[in-house]
C-alpha cells in the first residue's frame, strides 16, 4: 500500500512527457495599463527560448496583430505579430469557414477590415452576406444606419465580441456589445458573437497554432470569459490574480480553474511541466 502511494507521488512530480502549448490572454495577464505584469517578460522569454508553442489572445478587434505587436513593444513586451490572435481574426476565420469568398459590410477599424479582407472577402454595402460589427472609437450614425438596413434586408449579423464596456481614463467607454444592442433594438435581430467567451475563439486559435486542447494551458484573468471558454474548449485553465479577479471572485463560480496563480511569473521555470505548479498561497487564506 505504502509503495503504491510512493509511486503515485513520484508520478505526480515526474516531468511530464507532454509538450505543452500555451494560450494566454493579453490584458491583466501580460500587460496591465500599458505596463508589463510582474514576471511576464521572463515567462515570454522562457517560451521563446525553449521553442514552446504559444499564442496571445485578445478580444480587441481595433488593431492588426502587427499594430498590437508594436504597441506591446512600447510596453516592453516582445510578442511577434504571428503569435497574436484577435477576435477580428477569429471572426474572419469563422466567415471563411462558413461561407468562403463571401461579402460583408464591416463597421470597425483596420484590425477587422484587414482580417476580413485577407480571408478573401469583398467589403461592400450592396447586398452583403454579412454585417460584421467590431470595435471602433468613431462610430458613425450613418454606418450604423446602413448596418441596420442591410440586416433588415437579410444580411446575417456577426459581432467580434460581446463586451459592453472597455476601460477608459474617465471610467468606462461603450464597447462593441453596447453598439450591438443598439442595432439589435432597431432590427430585432441578435448577432452571433465570435470572441471570448465563445469557445469558437479558443478553437480557432488552437487551429492557427496547430495545438490540441488537452495539451494546452489557457491562462487568463477572468473567470467568466477566459476560464469558462478555456474549460469549454477542453483546455487546462490557469487563473492569474494579476488582473481583474481576486481569489474571492474565483470562488463565486460553479466551475474552477486547474490552478490559481499570482501571475505568469509563477510559471517561470515550469513551462515544461506547468501542472507541477501549485496554487497561490492566497488560495489557502
Ligand atoms: Mg484579461
UniProtKB/TrEMBL annotation:
- Membrane-traversing stretches: none
Positions in coiled-coil regions? none
GO (cellular component) term, any one: cytoplasm
Q: Where does substrate bind?
A: 196
Q: Is the Protein biosynthesis keyword given for this protein?
A: no
Taxonomic superkingdom: Bacteria
> A single Pfam family, by name?
Hydrolase_like
How and how many cofactors are bound, per the record note? Divalent metal ions. Mg(2+) is the most effective.
Positions with a binding annotation for Mg(2+): 25, 27, 221
Keywords, ordered alphabetically:
Carbohydrate metabolism, Hydrolase, Magnesium, Metal-binding
The UniProt family comment states: Belongs to the HAD-like hydrolase superfamily.
Task: Identify the NCBIfam families for this entry.
Answer: HAD-SF-IIA
Record's protein name: Ribonucleotide monophosphatase NagD
What organism does this protein naturally occur in?
Answer: Lawsonella clevelandensis
**Gene it is expressed from:** nagD
